[in-house]
Amino acid sequence: MEDPEQDPGVRAMLAYQAGDEAAFDELVRSYSGQVYALLSRFLGPVPAREDLVQEVFLRVVRARERYKPSARFSTWLYRIAFNLCVNERERLSGRVEVSLEAPGEGGLDGGPPGALADGTAAGPSEELERADAVAAVRAASAALPETQRMALLLAKYEELSHAEIAEVMGSSEKAIKSLIHRARENLRAALRPFLQEDAA
Question: Which of 21, 33, 57, 193 sits a CA distance of 20 to 30 A from 186?
Answer without folding.
Answer: 33
